[in-house]
Amino acid sequence: MLNNVALFLYFVMGVPSATIHKLAYFLSRF
After folding, report:
1. What is the pLDDT of residue 1?
2. What angle do CA 24, 27, 30 make, to 5 degrees?
3. What residue ranges are annotated as transmembrane (predicted)?
4. Three-state SS sequence of 1-30
5. pLDDT in tens, the chain (30 residues)
6. Alpha-carbon distance values, 6 to 23, 28, 29 (Å)
7. Looking at the 3D structure of the chain, how many domains does it have?
8. Are 12 and 20 in contact (CB under 8 A)?
9. Domain of 8?
10. CA angle (25, 28, 29) in 5-degree steps
11. What is the Cα–Cα distance from 20 to 11, expressed in whole angstroms?
12. pLDDT score recorded for residue 21
């Protein structure tokens, strides 16, 4: 579980902020 969280944080910090905003908007629709 901890490895998944660390991997997720690493992925979030690695992608551009624009992609993060698009992802957040996409997730907020649910």
Report:
1. 63
2. 145
3. 6-27
4. CHHHHHHHHHHHHHCCHHHHHHHHHHHHCC
5. 678 888 888 777 777 777 878 888 888 887
6. 18, 22, 25
7. 1
8. yes
9. 1-30
10. 95
11. 10
12. 82
| Residue 16, both tokens | 């551009």
One-letter identity of residue 10 = Y
pLDDT computed for residue 16 by the predictor: 72
Half-sphere exposure of 7 (CA within 13 A, CB side): 4
The Cβ-side half-sphere exposure at 17, using a 13 Å CA radius, reads: 0
- Give me 23's structure tokens: 């992802």
